[in-house]
Design a protein that fits this description.
The complex is a heterodimer. Chain A is α/β, with parallel strands linked by helices. Chain A contains 14 helices and 24 strands. In chain A, helix 2 packs across helix 3, helix 7 crosses helix 12 and helix 8 crosses helix 13. In chain B, the strands form three sheets. Chain B has a three-stranded antiparallel sheet with strand order 1-2-3. Chain B has a three-stranded antiparallel sheet with strand order 6-7-8. Classes of the chains: A alpha/beta, B mainly alpha. Chains A and B meet through helix 3 of A and helix 12 and helix 13 of B.
Chain lengths: ~525, ~425
């Protein structure tokens, strides 16, 4: 048992604050909404107090103290807006900007740049320096993912600490001194750790830019939607940032219980799959057909199958999609369910965030299959042999080539966002909406049921599998009481213990990043 | 051969009604619904009036506004404070400068900088505002007269309006959609020749006013249609929320410029013309007199205005000079943040009102501390005024609708937002 945390009472700008002992002054100020400007501090990293931007006046201290590095003390009196503090803050900014290039119009960070924000909030005066700026290397290739612009760097060392403390690899270092100091990799090394793109997020300026997002989009024009990364079973919370009908980038969203402030590079790049090999239209026996005809064909297939019907559920799809398809198949006579999933990749696993299981919803899909069919009747898809089966409803279809061949021996109704061998072999293909295009929940490796929101419209007539299930049920004259994905989740919550804590959350208006702070 | 009746075109056996004992009796009528508008040549504004008429008498009128609704208020929530100016141009589009000024004053009140706006900027705002008011009133009077048949008067007055708009174009670069005012001042200084050219314009405008009054005040047709039509009582006008020239036509001397002086209006000598009967003619003549008062204010403003800055010196409100934007990071960031994020207005709410062309133009602003309005509500003067139209034309002859509607001076852009 941990000991009760001792609290410390202090005063910030005259307001009484009570925080746990060991908290730094900067975090204590945040609790009462006082914004102390800072560059080098990051709540997820250690505090080196190198930027000197967070200096505050403390009663009894002869000099200003860095608030990110100073723990709170009993009866401490802090002044964050005293004249001394404000002058220090303003002069630090003037100093930081002395060698900063006039790059905003071509800088990817412009619009979400901490330096721009701090300058406009706390300084906004012209510089008094009339010297040429120091020039440093631009467009330095640091590794496969990152490009460095040394001139923009304000030497906060956050990126070094991310590599050290999150990725656990010391790949970045400061070299030279004074106004020639610059960030570099050690000779012969590259910045190639699997968490390298977090350096871009923490960079307070545009010094580190992601090759993936560089020059793609002005950030303030992006719309942001809360999603869940589908790259592995960790289920990192992400913001799906999108514009012009496609996802432009994924950035981590803070969740202390899952991913803290971080996510891996592989996860960030998963959005590229959304533009490849997509199914936008329905097919019957390989020929494009309207969704109505395809549903009718699928319904007559299911009717003809009788007890020879089975279902393959999918660890890539949401709980609601799985539950709807499982429920439909069970109602229509299926007695067994198979679970398909992307093959695990142990080479991508580590003890930080990445998991060998490459599916976002392995736990959820299994819990649903077992709840609907009973745990004895749920098998991995590799056990599929087709014996005694006539028709299979296949969700997702992430199976090996051999299994695909075995599945191909029965007639299939294939529901997936992506084409492939199974789609080509299927009797009926129904296009499914992909993860960025639907509302639903995923159960991560900890068993947390996490909500993902629809950011985009699905292509063509694609739609979530639970909507396809509703269409099929209507065609088959089966009772279907699930009007929306929320009613599916509600039933799961009420009946399956693994979903007892699930919450759909409230709907939110779509927010453009430039407005994110006014409406979000 | 058959005998054919000879028919002479255009000649009929006319009944001599003078001898007809039934000629003076009312013809039997029954109520009929007639649509006036939304696009009607005699309504200078897009408004639909569903009339129930009995013969020539209006028995009921259902006035329907909203045809020019452009989501001004909603759009403003998605624009930075500066980006709202072009939208305000399109409120009362006959006097855009007055809307510019009214909106700027509202944001400045929220920012707490009303008193810090440089004096020259306040004079400039007064000058362009009063020029706009002249143009606005001239348009109203001219169009009103035209729709009663006096085409010549319209051309006279609109000629004068064009002189003013030429000057406003020279000041702002645009004839109608000026977007000239900025938060904290105005976008740039007046052209050096402006005072001289504006002074030269006053006698010409006064001459037009003389022509206008000569042609209308003693004109029987005009007076018959204006006198005693569209009469509203003081109590009704107040309870409908009337302001501006239409309220003053009833004899109530309420003018925001005098009652709640803003800008530098307490430095000027001017009078508030009022009517006595609250009819269409009073509304006409009040406007004519107000043009004279505006000229009086303009003359004083031109005498008093002194050189100086035209915009507040605050880098968090005003864009840095282009020289600094292109060459220094400080200027670049300032420019960037003001354009992308907008001017940060402290959280809170304010109501600010000015005397627009039609009356009290109010802006009610709720700020959440960001660079965009959380809510911006406009109190358009003519919305309140037009709401009384149905009452004023009820039981009046059909012919009274046009002068009554004209003298209300409904401006669709402002009324419907």
């Amino acid at each position: 048992m941990s000991e009760p945390v001792k609290t410390v009472a202090l005063k910030i700008d005259g307001q009484a604050v009570s925080v746990p002992a060991g908290t730094n002054v900067l975090e204590a100020a945040k609790t009462i909404g006082v914004d102390i400007s800072y560059f080098c501090y990051h709540p997820g990293l250690s505090s080196p107090a190198v930027c000197r931007q967070c200096l505050v006046e403390v009663k009894g201290s002869p000099k200003l103290v860095p608030s990110c590095y100073t723990p709170v003390a009993e009866n401490m009196e802090v002044f964050t807006t005293s004249e001394k503090t404000l002058v220090a803050r303003q002069q630090m900014l003037e100093f930081t900007l002395v060698n900063h290039p006039v790059d905003c119009p071509i800088c990817d960070k412009a619009g979400e740049c901490n330096l721009q924000r701090q300058y406009q909030s706390w300084d906004s005066e012209p510089s008094r320096i009339d010297e040429d700026k120091v020039h440093k290397p631009k467009m330095v290739d640091l590794g496969p993912t990152i490009v460095l612009d040394s001139e923009r760097c304000i030497l906060c060392t956050r990126c070094i600490r991310v590599c050290d403390e999150v990725a656990g690899e010391h790949q970045l270092e400061m070299a030279w001194r004074g106004d020639r100091e610059q960030l570099t990799t050690a000779p012969g090394h590259v910045l190639d750790n699997p968490y390298s793109l977090n350096t871009v997020d923490v960079c307070p300026v545009g010094a580190l830019t992601a090759k993936d997002f560089r020059f793609q989009m002005r950030v303030w024009e992006l719309y942001t939607t809360d999603g869940i990364c589908t790259g592995c079973a960790t289920g990192c919370n992400v913001e799906i940032q999108h514009a012009q009908g496609r996802v432009q980038r994924l950035v981590p969203r803070e969740n202390e219980a899952v991913n803290k402030f971080w996510m891996c590079d592989d996860g960030r790049l998963t959005y590229h799959e959304l533009a490849k090999n997509r199914l936008g239209g329905a097919r019957v026996s390989g020929a494009p057909k309207s969704i109505e005809l395809a549903i009718a064909e699928a319904a007559s297939l299911i009717k003809s199958a009788g007890p020879g019907l089975t279902v393959i559920l999918d660890a890539q799809s949401t709980n609601e999609d799985n539950y709807a398809i499982a429920k439909l198949a069970h109602k229509l006579g299926a007695t067994t369910a198979y679970l398909s999933r992307r093959a695990p990749d142990p080479s991508k696993a580590d003890k930080i965030l990445r998991d060998a299981d490459q599916n976002p919803n392995s736990k959820g899909a299994r819990a649903i299959a077992e709840a609907v069919f009973g745990s004895a009747n749920v098998k991995p898809v590799d056990d599929f042999d087709g014996a005694g089966l006539l028709v299979a409803i296949v969700l997702g279809g992430h199976v090996s080539a051999e299994t695909a061949e075995r599945i191909g021996k029965v007639k299939t109704i294939f529901i997936s966002p992506f084409g492939g061998v199974l789609a080509d072999a299927a009797t009926v293909v129904l296009p499914q909406a992909a993860w960025a295009e639907l509302n639903g929940t995923y159960t991560n490796r900890q068993g947390l049921v996490q909500r993902s929101r629809a950011a985009l419209e699905p292509p063509g007539v694609a739609r979530p599998a639970h909507e396809l299930a509703a269409l099929l049920a209507k065609k088959l004259n089966t009772t279907w009481e699930y009007a929306t994905w929320k009613s599916l989740l509600k039933e799961l919550k009420d009946t399956v213990p693994a979903f007892a804590a699930a919450e759909a959350g409230r709907e939110r208006p779509l927010v453009q990043l430039r407005f994110a702070h006014s409406r979000g | 051969m058959r005998e054919r009746k000879k028919m002479v075109l255009g000649v009929k056996d006319l009944i001599d009604y003078a001898d007809d004992p039934e000629a003076d009796d009312e013809l039997p009528t029954e109520p009929m619904k007639v649509n006036m508008g939304p696009s009607h040549p005699a309504t200078h504004g897009t408004v639909r009036i569903v009339l129930t008429v009995e013969g020539e008498t209006v028995r009921d009128a259902d006035v329907q506004v909203g045809y020019l609704h452009r989501c001004f208020e909603k759009e403003s929530e998605y624009a930075t404070y500066t980006q709202v100016f072009p939208y305000t141009d399109r409120l009362n589009y006959v006097s855009p400068m007055l809307n510019n000024v009214g909106y700027a004053l509202c944001v400045e009140k929220a920012l707490g900088i009303v008193d810090k706006v440089p004096e020259r900027a306040q004079y400039i705002r007064t000058i362009v505002g009063e020029m706009s008011r002249i143009a606005d009133h001239m348009t109203c009077c001219a169009a009103g007269a035209m729709e009663l048949g006096a085409m010549t008067i319209f051309f006279w007055a609109v000629k004068g309006r064009e002189w003013i708009w030429e000057l406003l174009e020279e000041i702002s670069g645009a004839r109608l959609t000026h977007s000239y005012v900025r938060i904290g001042g105005v976008s740039y200084d007046l052209p050096p020749s402006l005072p001289e050219r504006l002074r030269a314009l006053f006698p010409k405008i006064e001459a037009i006013l003389k022509d206008l009054t000569d042609a209308t005040l003693e004109n029987k047709i005009f007076r018959d249609r204006m006198d005693g039509t569209g009469v509203i009582s003081q109590a009704d006008a107040v309870s409908y929320g009337w302001t501006g020239p239409t309220l003053r036509s009833t004899g109530i001397a309420y003018d925001v410029r005098a009652a709640h002086p803003y800008l530098l209006y307490d430095r000027f000598d001017f009078e508030i013309p009022v009517g006595s009967k609250g009819d269409n003619f009073d509304r006409y003549i009040v406007r004519i007199d107000e043009i004279r008062q505006s000229i009086r204010i303009l003359k004083q403003a031109l005498d008093q205005i002194a050189p100086g800055p035209v915009v507040i010196d605050d880098p968090r409100i005003v864009l840095p000079p282009k020289q600094a934007v292109y060459n220094t990071i400080e200027g670049m960031i300032g420019h960037f943040k003001l354009i992308v994020d907008g001017i940060k207005v402290p959280a809170g709410e304010v109501y600010s009102h000015t005397e627009g062309g039609n009356g009290e133009l109010g802006f009610y602003l709720v700020s959440d501390g960001t660079g965009r309005p959380y809510r911006l509500r406009v109190r358009p003067p003519c919305f309140a005024i037009v709401s009384a139209l149905g009452q004023l034309i009820k039981d009046a002859p059909l012919a009274d609708i046009v002068p009554t509607f004209d003298m209300m001076n409904m401006i669709g852009g402002e009324c419907d937002r």
